[in-house]
Write a structure and sequence with these properties.
Blueprint lengths: L12 H24 L5 H30 L11 H10 L20 E8 L1 H4 L10 H11 L5 E8 L5 H15 L3 E7 L30 H11 L4 H4 L1 H8 L3 H20 L3 E7 L11 H14 L4 E3 L13 E3 L2 E4 L1 H21 L17 H4 L4
Parallel strand pairs: 1-2, 1-3, 3-4, 4-5
Antiparallel strand pairs: 6-7
């Protein structure tokens, strides 16, 4: 549900310069007025002078505000179409050639290395988190590095905003065939079924309409004020989460989703790749009347019926106010605290007990050296 469109290279520089041109111009005209109006009627001069001073103060405040939101303020929006979100994307979200917020992965896997791909959407991507090292995937990789495990573990963040289950299948396939991953972890979020939602309207961001005298899409200050003070959710957004929840009990939609889940499972098992699932909770911020536990139980039940290890992270945030788990009041994506909780519970569910267990069972670590090479999987010697 977020846009991946960055701001232009110069960040609407000419529009920003106009703030300064107009502010300086009005300031000079005000100075000229007071120099040349000394012979005016006192009342007229007072009224005109106060009006000009007020206009100057407003322009100065606007220029300072534009400068702050353009160059210093970093804040995302839940759907991501605001200029602030697009600036955050350009400043904080360095992406590799595949479009993922991670380092460039060598095609050839280093020796004595186990690769784990965490596949998901904007929650996995770390939308709204300025430092990628605070994401749950990076925290888990750090845990592996500190665990003393002789085999190096490379955690690959394969999260991309706006993607859904169908695209996650393709991502898993590319990671298996292109990067020889040993394990794929599906980081499933409540809205990953969005493309199957039966509704007449796709939710849209409350974005400002084209202006007559000014372009709100090029002013960071006006864009921010519009979203904060004027914008209202589109009709399709009002009951969006409830409609999503109903999709899980729509026979046709759920049947398609189960089929896609089975494709993931089959893909990994055919390629001798471990497959696990982490159900990420979506902080609700008071949106919707649906029961998230029922939705998570339905998804978890499916994977358990297929003997796929699954961890439900919804209980990890139970009792914590949503405001303490989201990146900001306008963006429901999980913040650093939520990501830390996710990392702790994924580690405990999938890896900690394995490492503390018998030498022959190390969460798939020992098997990685015994797995078939990509050539062997394709029937080549």
């Amino acid at each position: 549900m977020v846009s991946m469109s960055p701001i232009p290279p110069n960040g609407f520089l000419m529009h920003y310069l106009w703030w300064w041109i107009i502010t300086v111009s009005v300031g000079l005209h005000t100075w000229c007025f007071f120099c040349l109006s000394r012979d005016w009627n006192r009342k007229r001069r007072l009224i005109a002078g106060n009006a000009l001073i007020t206009l100057n103060l407003l322009l100065i405040a606007g220029t300072v505000g534009e400068t702050w939101f353009r160059y210093f303020h970093l804040e995302t929006h839940e759907i991501g179409l605001t200029l602030g979100s697009r600036r955050w994307l350009a400043v904080c979200a360095n992406r590799n050639p595949m479009g993922y917020r991670d380092e460039i992965w060598p095609v050839t896997k280093p020796t004595a290395t186990r690769r784990i791909a965490f596949v998901g959407d904007s929650f996995t991507f770390g939308w709204g988190i300025n430092d990628p090292r605070d994401r749950f995937t990076d925290l888990i990789e750090r845990r592996f590095a500190e665990s003393g495990e002789p085999m190096r573990v490379e955690v690959m963040n394969v999260g991309k905003p706006g993607t859904e289950t169908g695209e996650h299948i393709d991502a898993i396939r590319k990671m298996i065939e292109g990067f020889d991953v040993d394990e794929a972890v599906l980081c499933y979020c409540f809205n990953d079924i969005d493309d199957l939602t039966r509704s007449g309207e796709t939710p849209r961001a409350p974005y400002p309409p084209p202006g007559t005298f000014t372009n709100l899409e090029s002013s960071f200050l006006l864009d921010y004020l519009y979203v904060q003070l004027v914008a209202r959710p589109s009709p399709g957004m009002v009951d969006y989460f409830d409609r999503l929840a109903r999709t899980y009990w729509d026979p046709q939609s759920w049947s398609i989703q189960c089929y896609r889940f089975d494709l993931m499972i089959r893909l990994c098992r055919e390629k001798d790749v471990d497959f696990r699932v982490a159900l990420l909770p979506m902080p609700r911020n008071g949106k919707g009347d649906y029961d998230p536990y029922a939705v998570h139980a339905r998804v978890a039940g499916f994977f358990e019926s297929r003997s796929v290890p699954v961890v439900d992270l919804l209980p990890t945030v139970k009792g914590i106010p949503s405001a303490e788990l989201v990146v900001n009041s306008r963006d429901y994506h999980p913040n650093e605290r939520a990501n830390s909780l996710f990392a702790d519970h994924i580690w405990e569910a999938f890896y900690a007990r394995k490492q503390a267990g018998s030498p022959g069972d190390n969460g798939g670590m020992n098997r990685s050296s015994e797995r078939k090479t990509p050539q062997q999987r394709n029937g080549k010697s």
